[in-house]
Amino acid sequence: MAYVPPHMRKGSRVRSPTGEMAFLPRFRKSLDLGSPGQKPGCGYIKKFSYADNAITKWFAVGLNGLEVDLGNLVLQQAALEIIERQGGVKPFVLLNLSHHDDGKVNQDISRLPWKCISQRVLQDLIHCSEYVRNEIEGPNQNLKGIRSRLVARIGKIFFIPWKSCTPEEDLGKASVDEFYLGKLKKCFYTGVPASYVDAIVDEVVPKVGFEFRNLKDIYHVKLSDRSQQEAVFMCKCRILDNRLQFYKMEMTQVRHMVYNISCIEKNMDLRLMLSTKRTLTSLQDDEMDSIRNLIASSVLCLSSRGGLRWPYGKATSSDGRFSVIGVWHTICRVYESPLLYLKVRDADRYDFSTDIGETTREVNLSLKGLLSQLLEKVENDKVLTTLEDVLKLLWEHFLPSNAIQNLKDLP
């Protein structure tokens, strides 16, 4: 009898979101944006790797270009059933209810939002890029092909109460402050509504001058290594002759800087992240053969989460060392401009260890021009100018304004 994954069995409570439902996150209880020992994260991957000197910060900025006075903000509950079912609590979003007028805001040109964000981020970005440069240039016999990435991700920051903190019913009754927010987990979720993706592709791409480059259809198979408890490998695969074919193995990316920015009066929030990723080359031939055989034993199944399944007992290598712990199927449209890569991605993910899957649509931008300047040690003034130009483009074209009457449309 063919193996039926848990999420496909009769009575399963996991369902695939479609359309606007794709914005509803499948959060994990253990994911948060907290202390250095518990680094931020949300979505499919349970654990992220952070550099020893990694910087993670959060702040809020408003339309007037000033960092928001937290005393003017309130938390509004978001109806996310899966959060309540998994953690026993509902998440909240930050709102500024002091602006109810026609949307006009007195704005000092010297305090435009992208200037405020640039000035706040610049020094940490330069500092962390030095560590990235040293990592790329440093010798390492076991790893090669170290790639750096500086990305802007569009999504939403949710605030999730700990079970032991302020009672849930009291969270939305008072203005917030840093201590108040410190009692909540912060989660950046990158899923966006289908209508937002359509607007980006149909309106923003031609207006900004992006050109279509390619379409990538990739399967990602996430493996654990019993001999190294902390080791997680991501195998990239393509379909060839109706079979899954392995072509590259990477280590989990290492994050050097993560800035999560709540964009008040906007429908979306912003994440800026600097990271590195390595191609793994240190495994022996017999180890690689074991991994290839494990991947080759997969079965293409469009009705399964992640698009793959394994016959019963075949999701572990013959020697028992490597095990499949998750699969992704991503279809990514890539657009390019002189300074940016725009990636519009449909992602279907499934985590074997939790029997949780999700289908999302995502919009990410790789800041290739800015990253080149940082790695080439260009003068700080030029880096600042480029950073401001990029953030202005993001603010004006990728972060739609939020009207108070449309709060019901928030995820």
Automatic annotation (TrEMBL):
Residues 46-398 form the DUF7903 domain. It holds the Pfam family DUF7903. It comes from the Eukaryota. This is DUF7903 domain-containing protein.
